[in-house]
Amino acid sequence: MADKTLTLAFSCIGERFYSLLDNLSSLSIPHNVNIIVIIQKPQFDTHNLIDNTSVNVIVLDNIGLSKSRNAAIMYAHSDFIWFLDDDVLLTNNDIEAVLAIINAGNADFYRAQIGCIEWHDKTFKQYKSVKKPSKLNLLQISSIEVIANLTFIKNKQLTFNENIGLGTKYQCNEENNFLIDAWEHGARFTFVDKVFVRHTCIFENRVLANNEIFEIRGATASRFKIVGILLLIRWTLRYLITEKKLSYISALYKGYFRGYSSYK
Fold first, then answer.
1. Among 33, 18, 105, 31, CA closest to 76
2. Nearest in space to 112 (alpha carbons), one of 88, 135, 136
3. Which of 10, 21, 100, 215 is buried most deeply by CB count within 10 Å?
4. Beta partners for 39?
5. Pairing of β 146-149 and β 80-85
6. Phi/psi of residue 45, each to 5°?
7. What is the mean pLDDT of residues 96-116?
8. Using only C-alpha atoms, what is the Rg of the chain?
9. What does the pLDDT look like over 128-154, one tens digit per residue?
10. In which band, very low, low, confident or very high, does the pLDDT at 52 lie, cut at 50, 70 and 90?
11. Residue 45: pLDDT above 80?
């Protein structure tokens, strides 16, 4: 049986393009791995750049992380796709390990772990071993952890919701709702307890909390019906302690009772 093919699909803002290329130039890319870089509204001339790199560069004249992910789905032609950002760090060993897993496994979606660039013995978040993933587990996944069966995605006509995610009013949960869509279409998930990608663990530039972030979290919870109410209660107690802002709690319930379909 032929080795499965993999696309590394990087979403990129222009200012990080050169550092991304530096990282990629240090890699030995196997024959069955393709690289796509999606640049949105670059602030520099891309014509010579595209002509002088072996990387497949796609330039979009819009913004929004979900639009970038959807462009990657459109332009990729491989068995699997790995959704990545322009500030991650990969090694040859990481790529080889992912290829080994998708060749040996039968899942449609694999969740990898994220390590820290600064501390190689630490992870980006706390992980628990998940032997039998549930729909609720999908709420804990970040997009750069996702290695997905591209044929499944295209056959089921799955796309990221372009009204949510970075670059929109509602700056998160686009990957979680994409994965919930896949789950509801019968996708098989495997959670891999290994680090395959690294990201900074210095969080000073993270998106700050705002009402809209909590609103879309509430809308996402609405996809769990009665269990969503239990999520709201849990999150209410947590955010009252950590955030101490009643408008966030109000936004959670606003999103839940509007329902996720109102944000599509």
1. 33
2. 88
3. 10
4. 12, 59
5. antiparallel
6. -70, 120
7. 96
8. 19
9. 999 999 999 999 999 999 999 999 999
10. low
11. no
Query: In degrees rounded to 5, what are phi and psi of residue 194?
Result: -140, 145
In the Cβ-directed half-sphere of 199, how many Cα atoms lie within 13 Å? 18
Structure tokens at 225: 């019906």
Tokens coding 136 = 């609720």
Report which of 162, 55, 72 is spatially closest to residue 46, judged by C-alpha positions: 55
Position 28 pLDDT exceeds 70: yes
Identify whether the C-beta of residue 200 lies closer than 8 Å to the C-beta of residue 116: yes
In this prediction, residues 227-231 reach a mean pLDDT of 95
Show the DSSP H helices in the chain as ranges. 17-25, 47-51, 65-75, 92-104, 150-155, 174-184, 211-221, 226-242, 246-258
Spatial distance between the Cα atoms of 53 and 21, rounded to a whole number of angstroms = 9
Helices and strands: H and E segment counts in the chain: 9, 7
Structure tokens, 175: 């990957």
What is the separation of C-alpha 137 from the centre of its chain, rounded to a whole number of angstroms?
A: 14
According to DSSP, the residues that pair with 6 across neighbouring strands are 33, 80
Tell me 170's DSSP state: B
d(CA 116, CA 112): 13
Whole-number Cα distances in Å, 18 to 7, 66, 202: 20, 22, 21
Q: State how far Cα 177 lies from the chain centre.
A: 11
Separation between Cα atoms, residue 247 and residue 210, nearest integer Å: 9
| Lowest-confidence region among 29-43, 78-92, 105-119, 224-238 | 29-43
User: What distance separates the 2 farthest-apart alpha carbons in the chain?
Assistant: 57
Q: Which of 193, 184, 163, 166 is nearest to 262 (CA)?
A: 163
Q: Which residues pair with 114 in a beta bridge?
A: 197
